[in-house]
Amino acid sequence: MVYPEEPFWALPMVSGLYEDRDYRVNVVEALQEFWQMKQTRGVELKNGALVIYESIPSNSQPYVCFVTLPGGSCFGSFQNCPTKAEARRSSAKIALMNSVFNEHPSRRISDEFIEKAVQDARASFKGTPQNNELPESGIGAFRFMLEANKGRTMLEFQELMTVFQLLHWNGSLKAMRERQCSRQEVVAHYSNRSLDDEMRAQMALDWIAREQENPGVLRRELVLAERELETARMAGRELRFPKEKKDILMIAHNQLGGSNLGAASIEN
Q1: What DSSP assignment string belongs to the chain?
Q2: Distance of CA 162 to the CA centre of its chain
Q3: pLDDT per residue over 11-30, tens digit each?
């Protein structure tokens, strides 16, 4: 991913893309136009070209804003923003930088890309090398997903990858293996599903059940998820997985009435 240094890029004048007539890119408009341009050029975007912003409710600075791109990637404001508008610009800037970088051939899923990605995943996996290659293993499923999405870029692939990260985190992949579901069946099923409120609600129910069996586990997981999200946001990293984890846990937290979980609430 690309990490930011300056709040604006200096570019030649283009009508409508600059703020205050000072040759600086209006990153919010530029980001939307970038994805609309990709759609008009024939890039398949399952949910359209709309860029979605989410401002975190707060009565005081610093303000925080997240932006989700059409391919599913999510970025957040990475600076201490004194206004909500500045937070939106901050999130749009890092998203635009990564959207442009995503056009580089190295970001397209190819045989070479798959081998490198699998090697990186294996290096962080605690199982044995033999188990890593088994079709039912997480590494095997990851390779299968990448091979099924050759030709796409990583930002276009992000939502599907996040779905499987969540299924692994939530224990759902393990449960499906125990029911002897093949990875082809699992990938085929979830490739046609969006990461939507229904899926989040289903995963939240799993965490409610865990909390009822083991009181305190939800609060601990929520604290870890919020810390991970905040650290990644301030570093300008891609945020979809940690943000979805936090959102799912907050759904479970709210459905339980928020009892004994208040200390886990993120500070804005």
Answers
A1: -----SSS-B----TTSBSTTSSBB-HHHHHHHHHHHHHHTT---TT-S--EEEEPP-SSSSB-EEEE-TTS-EEE--S-BSSHHHHHHHHHHHHHHHHHHTTSGGGB--HHHHHHHHHHHHHT--S-HHHHTSTTSHHHHHHHHHHHTTTSBHHHHHHHHHHHHHHHHHTHHHHHHHTT--HHHHHHHHHT----HHHHHHHHHHHHHHHHHSTTHHHHHHHHHHHHHHHHHHTT---HHHHHHHHHHHHHHHHTTTTT-GGGPPP-
A2: 6
A3: 333 444 444 444 467 999 99
Listing from the earlier edge strand, what are the strands of the sheet with 65-68? 52-55, 65-68, 74-76
Note the pLDDT tens digit of each residue in 152-167: 888 878 888 898 889 8
Going 115 to 119 to 121 to 122, the CA torsion angle's sign is positive
Residue range 68-125, pLDDT digits in tens:
999 889 999 998 999 999 999 999 999 999 999 988 888 889 999 899 888 887 776 5
End-to-end CA separation in angstroms for the chain: 25
d(CA 263, CA 246): 14
Domain range annotation of the chain: 27-103
Do the beta carbons of residue 176 and residue 186 sit within 8 Å? yes
pTM: 0.78
CATH of 27-103, one of 3.30.160.20, 3.10.310.10, 3.40.30.10, 3.90.79.10: 3.30.160.20
Residue range 28-36: mean pLDDT, rounded: 94
